[in-house]
Amino acid sequence: MTQKQNKKLQRPARMKLKMFGYMAAFIAIVILLLWVFQIVLLDDIYRQTVRVESAGVTSAIAVASKLDSDGFRSKVYNLAAEHSTCVSVFEIAGTKGREMVSAHSQNLCVIHSNMLGNGFLADIYANAKNTNVYVETVEGSATGNGSILCAKVVENGASDILIVVNTPLASVDATVNTLHLQFGIISAILLIIAAIMAFIISERITRPVAAMSREAKKLAVGNYDVNFEGGEFLETAELGATLNYAAEELSKLDTMQKELISNISHDLRTPLTMISGYSEVMRDIPGEMTAENMQIVIDETKRLSTLVNDLLDLSRLTGGQRKLNKTVFSLTECVRSTIARYSHLSENDGYSITLDAAEDITVEADEMLILQVIYNLISNAINYTGEDKKIHVSQTVNNGICRISVSDTGEGIPEEKLPYIWDRYYRTGDFHKRAVSGTGLGLSIVKNALVLHHAPFGVSSTVGVGSTFWFELPVLSDKNDK
Ligand code: ADP
User: What pTM was computed for the model?
Assistant: First the structure.
């Protein structure tokens, strides 16, 4: 591993620490929220609650004022006791007020200690007269924390009934102190739990990750006998399965690459040996500089260049470098010209290549690649056809799709071998007739070229009868259709 890679690996923090950090941050946010609501806003929330409650008691007494005097009296006592508040109800006639009922649940409330001076009742009455329920916070009264004063006026014939409710406010300091202490203890406990949880969770995640990382290092040095175990989490289990798949594919690729290299070197060595052998003979032995020997050297050189070209074509096609260069051309003419290239075989060796094409078909495709497809299929048919040396090429059109089929009368291909013939260097047997030299790459080039065109292709073969290779391209109905 390079230093740069090492540095990259060291930089990230350990998972345990990170996880603990996240959990601690989460706990801090929760404690902060609790602190804001429980401590900072405690006094305001408490005062608001008391205001609402006192106003409720005042309204309830107002409703009860319609009862008879005993019922009313007992209702006032009950409400005052229930809500720990002080209640005074006055009958106001003119400027005078007469106390009708008085319930005194707290020691020093503003009504009963009359600490707000003589005009106090008159002021309350004036304020309450104009509102539904008059509510006021009286600061610094006898309890030291102030109190909530509520008042309501109920009309009662000639006189008015004034209901005054006063609830002293308790001090929240003691509660705040208790909460401070509680928050301290809770935070400490939560942090300890967070540390333990961070340790347990990260252990469960990191253990399989560390094991997979060890296996991946083996893979990096070419050891494909590895097993990635992802542990109990779905994500790490999926990662393990993906890595196992990748290892399998890498191993296959490695084997294929080794086979490819040995096949290529074998195929390169044979013509090279012939060329060097014949050249030395021609140089050293007088009279061997014949046209036949020269022809062998030329043929073998051609074979070499065909092989190198095929290899280049295939690597461009499979490597994604080869982009389609589509043009409009006559597919039928393409087939005709390819057949014409083999005219010497027909004339000299008795091969018969027939074409059955009712019309001239125009397609839009990469002409060079399609030409190569047709060439490879026909040269295979020549290589593998039977004793009658017959090859038949047919062009059929169905629903705007043109199918080119190349049939021979050879030994055919066993069904179980059919799926593999398109692979690089796959050979079903050793029955090459070698009328045209083959490199073992022909069908692989055909497949890659047609896949690039998204064109359907296939083969049907009967052992002892022959094979038919075919491919399809959409017909360009009018040449101006483009
Ligand atoms: P090769 O140079 O060996 O012909 P190809 O890739 O063209 O390489 O073909 C792969 C294999 O498919 C051939 O070795 C042969 O076994 C089989 N094959 C291809 N075409 C035919 C055919 N027309 N008849 C029988 N077998 C064929």
Answer: 0.51
Q: Are strands 352-357 and 390-398 parallel, antiparallel or unpaired?
A: parallel
DSSP letters spanning 375-428? HHHHHHHHHH--TT-EEEEEEEEETTEEEEEEEE-S----GGGGGGTTSTT--S
Radius of gyration over alpha carbons of the chain, in Å? 50
Cα 441 to middle of ligand 1, angstroms: 9
State which amino acid sits at residue 417.
K
Nearest CA to ligand 1 atom 13: 427
Q: What CA–CA distance (Å, rounded) separates 162 from 152?
A: 6
- Cα 55 to chain centroid distance, Å, stands at 58
* Count of CA atoms in the C-beta half-sphere (13 A) of 425: 15
Atom of ligand 1 nearest to the CA of 443: 6
Residue-wise pLDDT tens digits, 216-258: 999 888 888 899 998 888 888 899 999 999 999 888 888 877 8
Q: Which residues are paired to 122 by β-bridges?
A: none
Furthest CA-CA distance within the chain: 155
Q: pLDDT for 265-274, tens place per residue?
A: 877 887 899 8
Alpha-carbon span 101 to 77, nearest angstrom:
9
